[in-house]
């Protein structure tokens, strides 16, 4: 029986669980991974590189005023 490959964010969850990350960290990583993919119009991260990462981080910093170290999500998510 053929089984489809798990979706990307499910693969991310599995990898984080294998490394024993906390559930809170897992949820955060999946949240930002989803945002990254949607920001780039559902392109697969394997198709992207440094320029796309920089544009996403720049958008977060400039438009949403998200800092590198954020204690609160300030209404994001």
Could you characterize what this model shows?
By secondary structure, the protein is mostly helical. The protein has a domain of 40 residues: DNA polymerase, domain 1 (Orthogonal Bundle), CATH 1.10.150.130. Helix 1 runs antiparallel to helix 2.
Low-confidence stretches: none
Number of helical runs?
3
End-to-end span in angstroms?
A: 38 Å
Give the overall silhouette: globular
CATH architecture of the domain at 9-48: Orthogonal Bundle
CATH superfamily of the domain at 9-48: Tyrosine recombinase, N-terminal domain
Total DSSP E strands = 0
For the record, the CATH class of the domain at 9-48 is: Mainly Alpha
Query: Structural class, from secondary structure content?
Result: mainly alpha
Order of helices and strands: HHH
Radius of gyration: 14 Å
Share in β-strands: under 5%
For the sheet with most strands, the description reads:
none
Provide a quick synopsis of the model.
The protein is mostly helical. It has helices spanning 8-18, 23-39, 50-63.
